[in-house]
Amino acid sequence: MPRPSRKKPSKQRKRQEITGDDGWTHIVTTHESYDGLLPPRLQPAPVPSGWTLEKVTHDAERYRQQWVKSACFRSLSAIVEKEILPTLNTSIDCCVCLGLGSVTGGRGSEMWELVALQSILEALGKKHTINHVYMQDPVFNSLDVGFMESLGYTVLKDPDAFAMVTSTSFLFAPHLEFDVFARALETAIPALGIGSDLDDYLNR
After folding, report:
1. Is 110 in contact with 100 (CB distance < 8 Å)?
2. Could you check whether the bond before residue 159 is cis, i.e. omega within 30 degrees of 0?
3. Separation between Cα atoms, residue 104 and residue 54, nearest integer Å
4. Number of CB atoms found within 10 A of residue 113's CB
5. Measured between alpha carbons, how far is residue 144 from residues 63, 75, 82, 110, 150 in Å?
6. If the chain, 204 residues long, is cut into consecutive pieces of 10 residues, what is the mean pLDDT of each piece?
7. What is the value of pTM for the model shown?
8. Contacts of 107 (CB under 8 A, 6+ apart)
């Protein structure tokens, strides 16, 4: 009687948290398990085949148009204009964005965060003159950098953006690993900061 053949199990796609030497943590998808002995360095995300600056710009506008029609946009705008601006006594002159992720090689959430940031900057601009917007993430690829620069933003290499956090900064770092967020606060406490829920940090 012939023995039934066994199919080799297919490699499962696994989502893992990879932390670089400087504490940056990102979620990546792999086909093999990672034994934790040699954590890989964070590298720029691959540029998708055929993607150009024109395409990224077009996609960003599409996201923006959907964003401004959403209930989330209305809720966030109300919070900024009715709760934050009236109580913000310190002038804000720059924005530091950490760990946004690749808007070209990511999963789409990065672009949503970017358009949300832009709407916050627009609202803050009604009472504050924000002269510089600094962006930093080790996974930015060349197309990400070109797109950010087309928006008038300055992309900095890790860890240069940490030094840009001052008492007159707006720090935008949602979902940033606690250790990296804490590092950003070593130089100064920003006038305004947006990060993860405080409970996420306290219960880590």
Report:
1. yes
2. yes
3. 12
4. 20
5. 16, 28, 33, 11, 10
6. 44 48 48 44 91 97 98 96 94 97 93 97 96 97 98 97 97 89 91 80 59
7. 0.79
8. none
